[in-house]
Structures are given as structure tokens and as C-alpha cells.
Specification:
By secondary structure, the protein is mainly α. Among the domains are: 77 residues, no CATH class; 56 residues, no CATH class. The protein contains 8 helices and no strands. The longest helix has 40 residues.
Amino acid sequence: MANGDKKSLWEQVCEAFEAEQLSPPHGKWREKDPTAVEIHENPATGYLRKNVFPMLLPSLEALLREGQKYGWFERGKSACLPYVFLIKWLYNHNPQRQGQGHLNFCDIPFVKDFLSNHPRHHIPLFLLLSEEEAAVLIQSFWRGYKIRVRPDVQELRQWQREQREYLDIRRTVAEFWRRQESRLSLMMMNVPESAPMMTHEA
């Protein structure tokens, strides 16, 4: 199939959906007169078809591509919410913003105002990590655990713990004597020069 005839992702999804539907009981559906549809079209339907769908359908197609890229359909949960992507895509592709730079979701003015009064909940770390990043963290933790449970490593950790306790004791004793010497120096400075000196008689 030539590149010009290649169907978009949205068209492929629509064709797959139609193929899954039950076939009509008496052959093909009766085709409607297109002129009658135009004559009796609801004004709201016409507005959606002419003004909303030309912008909404490409955004849904981009949403499907984004979901396939990051595996939204394979994972039960995801850090990226579909409505966040749609809001950002529709705002950045607004024809009235032509020539302006793309903004992140949190930098969109009305989103920023809303989040100032309704902060978003904290996203758990497991939703922010990809499968590769999560695998690296799990593997590094497991390797560290296997090293720490070795007898020789346990012995080394015990020796390090004892050394820290010994150094803490020495530091505590040194701090105690430093305070005592400081107190003694202050007492000697407060003694008047004319005070009688005590002598010890034999």
C-alpha cells in the first residue's frame, strides 16, 4: 500500500470496531439518502460535525498513539491520565494559538488557576517508573540483599557497628571533660583577687 493510501490509526480502530459488530439480519443496511440527512440535520449535530469533530478526532488519534507508546493499554494503572493529554493537546493545537510555543499541562493558564485551589494528589513512584527503570531498582536491591546476608559481610558490618559505638563513647567522654574544664575556667575567672588563699597546715 502506498504511503498516500495508508490509513490513519483512527481509521484502523474504526474499521476494527465495525468488523466486530453483528451483521444485519437481512443483508446490508439500507443506505439513506445523503440529501435527506443534510436537510433534516440537527443544528447541534451540524455544529459538532463542522467545528468540533475536525479538532477532536485528531486529538483522540494522538491519544491512542501516546497510549501505545507508553503501554497504557497493557498496564492496569498509569501516571499519565488521558484527560491531561487531551487538554494539553487541544490547547497547544488551538488554531487561535498559531505561532505560540507549546505549554506543559501545569503551565496552561486555566489549569494553573484550577490547581492553585485544587492541588493534584501525589503520584506514587511505581506509576512514574517505566518497566526498565523499575527492573533496575528491583535488581539492585536484590543484589545488595544477597551481598549483605553473606557471613563475611555480616562480620564486617558487626565490626563497623562496634567501632562506631567505641568512637561515640570516646567522643562523649571528651565532650564531658571539655565542659568540665570550661566550667572550671569560668569559676576561676569569677574568684576575686583579694580573696584569702586557703593553706593546708601540716
